[in-house]
Write a structure and sequence with these properties.
Order of helices and strands: HEHEHHEHEHEHHEHEHEHH
Largest sheet: 8 strands, parallel, barrel
Number of strands: 8
Structural class: alpha/beta
Strand order of the largest sheet: 1-2-3-4-5-6-7-8
Length: 275
């Protein structure tokens, strides 16, 4: 999916919501455990319920890898279901890969050829040769970790040099030498608030994938105030607040309600910028 197609979906849906499929076998409704493939069946129900209100889905690979072959089969089936039934939704493999060049090339082949997802999250720590193999696929995106929402982000990402430049700012500046705003996005945690202003000074046109709204306490209004650009430029992710809105048999209905509430708030934010 290219940038124009993604922006078109945001306009059509009046939404920039990404639903995180962080599917934990220990948290899904108990009645699903009786089924042959509880992880996939949970995902399928969540997708069917929330698809009208979102433009993207983000399965987190850790939750699937933790169940071995069975979990990876559920991931594969989930991606296939999205391709078959919701082909206009943007798919993010939240894998946080990044290794020496030939290894990164294999990771890229896995997600872009084998699974045919639209994007993959990549760690920048090892530099250009660990990232560029993911950029060799037309119509595919790298989503580079920049400024995350976890407490430990302070350990490295906010470190400053003698000129007062922070490490995450160096990542944003250097990585623009590798790809433009049509092929690279950045992960910026919703809890970072006003720092979105600093980020937009460096990457005014790039899309930002924003986790942390909802269960982690990030403010949608604050993210939009400081982070939106003329194309919206945001994919705001919510995982637990949507997929675990209920642990009962009404879990899909409650997920739809939570997604719809976010979509309605997002529609108002889009109106503010005339989109």
């Amino acid at each position: 999916m290219n940038r124009e197609q993604l922006v078109a979906q945001i306009r059509e849906k009046r939404s920039f919501l990404c639903v995180g499929l962080d599917t934990d076998i220990k948290k899904i409704p108990p009645h699903l455990l009786e089924e042959k493939d509880p992880i996939f069946n949970f995902n399928k129900a969540i997708i069917d319920a929330t698809a009208p209100y979102c433009v993207a889905y983000k399965p987190n690979l850790a939750f699937y890898e933790s169940k071995g072959i069975e979990g990876m089969k559920a991931f594969e089936d989930t991606v296939h279901y999205l391709h078959e039934h919701y082909p206009h939704h943007f798919i993010i493999a939240d894998a946080k890969r990044g290794d020496i060049g030939n290894t990164s090339a294999m990771y890229a082949r896995t997600f872009f050829e084998e699974y045919d997802v639209d994007s993959v999250t990549v760690a920048p720590y090892m530099g250009s040769d660990s990232v560029t193999p993911f950029l060799n696929y037309e119509g595919k995106w790298v989503i580079l970790l920049a400024l995350t929402s976890n407490k430990g982000s302070m350990d490295f990402q906010m470190m400053t040099d003698e000129h007062g430049e922070r490490l995450f700012e160096k990542v944003l500046k250097k990585s623009q030498e590798w790809a433009n705003a049509d092929q690279m996005m950045y992960v910026v945690g919703a809890t970072q608030g006003i720092l979105f202003k600093d980020i937009r000074k460096i990457v005014p046109n790039h899309f930002l994938l924003v986790p942390g709204v909802g269960a982690q306490g990030g403010s949608l209004e604050e993210v939009c105030r400081y982070g939106m650009n003329s194309d919206c430029g945001l994919l705001v992710n919510s995982s637990r607040g949507i997929i675990y809105a209920s642990s009962g048999k009404d879990f899909a209905e409650c997920a739809a309600r939570s997604a719809r509430e976010l979509q309605e708030s997002m529609s108002k934010e889009l109106e503010k910028i005339g989109l």
